[in-house]
Amino acid sequence: MAVEPPALAHLGLEQGIWQQVLPRVKDVAIMVAQAAVRILFILSSIWVAATFLPISFHAVAIPLIAIGATAIASFFYEQLPALDAPERQALFPLIRGEGRAAPIPGVLPDVPPGLVNRGANCAFNSVLQALHSDPRSIQWLTHLLEDDQTIDAFVQFIEGYNISRDDTNRFRAFVAAQPAENHPLVRDLFVQFCQMGDAPVSMRRFCADDFARLERVKQTFNEVLTRYAQEVGRGARVEVGSAMRGAIHRLNESVSQSNMAQIDAGEILVTILGLFPPGDKLRMQATQRYDTTNLPPLLGYPDGVIDREELDSTLQLGVPPHIASSSIQALLNFYCNSEEVLSKASVERINEHGQEVARNVPYPVRTTRRLLFAPPVIWMEAKRFEQEYPSQSWLSKVLPSWFPPKPVRIRKRNLPIEAQAEVTIQLVDGQMKRYRLASFIVHSGDTPDSGHYVAYREVGGAKYKLDDSHVTLLSQAEWERRAQQGYLYCYVEVPDQ
Known about the structure:
The chain is of the alpha+beta class. The protein contains 15 helices and 19 strands. Among the domains are: 11-81; 114-273, no CATH class. Strands 1, 6, 10, 14, 15, 16, 17, 18 and 19 form a nine-stranded mixed β-sheet that branches. A four-stranded antiparallel β-sheet has the order 5-4-9-8. The chain is globular and about 95 Å long.
């Protein structure tokens, strides 16, 4: 059911329009005063220079003084309203169809809070907003490795990372053998156990890899998600992008710590989803059938068929180059049945002794993917960015230092993709699963590490545009139009009736 914009009375404007106008006028007056002081200082500096310096110096001195005065004026500072201060209502919410994270008491109690963007943190804000389409994952991240975790809860947690029951029983025995007067945390006992020489290899590997990564970010995620939950329905704005950036950097050092560096939202999402146990990820069976007609036999696979299992956090939906528009369901079908040309090692007899040697031969191959397991929430990435390799001149090949090669360019495909409200996925065992669109992220710009990211999310039947601190209530038609330019999509399983 479509949600209409709230009535004027519900926005609290009946308390008096001047209570809303006067604070805005004060903010504008402060900004105008700061601009006037800067301009006056620059003009005064130029006037003093023109008055006291000889005319012959004016052509050189006045431009230099103007530049210096402008640089000095840029350091003038007067206290502005804090960006994370309680947000006032928008003056004209009905005309604009939006407010800046405006609380709507009695109508939409679950309205998401706005997230302040200090620099280029829009990608982190968008991913955090979209992640809340999956309450189960948010709950898991919020209570990650808590101090009061019991031995049973901890064992259940690590068994999700493919730790065998026999290995966890050894850990239980180690915990039970500890002196009763000592009460260390369960996770501290786990670290001690993994440092023992006879500890299982699987546990030592998990402790050095996944467990260490979780330990580095658990406190940050707990603080960020707890603060976010406290502001739901209150119309406040919070600043958590910097903390999110720091946590993602600790997991992935290629993510810059500078708030002025834009980051690919897809890279942020994959980094976060990579924390989850393998049992919560997509598991697929991929079958590659190589056409060996009139070609040497494939090394190790004489029939040309290779089967393997893949574990992914997201579905990478490639967009075929020959189409002008598509849909999520069509891209899913294309993803599960694709044709391409790959280079594989082949066997070929090349000497008089009949010795078999391998060489790389381009084989036409058809890849078929079928889902073995689909989690309750599936993230899909429309691969809108592709690399273009420009043709290089012979001069750049002969004299690369004098004629540098042309760099690889990234081209974005802005074709519309119909994001159906529901899609269907069939598992290997024949089970059909239905998923509904819960949120998506749109990118504006030419490359994934530039431009701007905006999240769109459905909450309780209401559809929102979450553009950093701006929270906008959308109509169904606007929601569908924006979804056509989506980059990342979140689909949630529809339970059987």
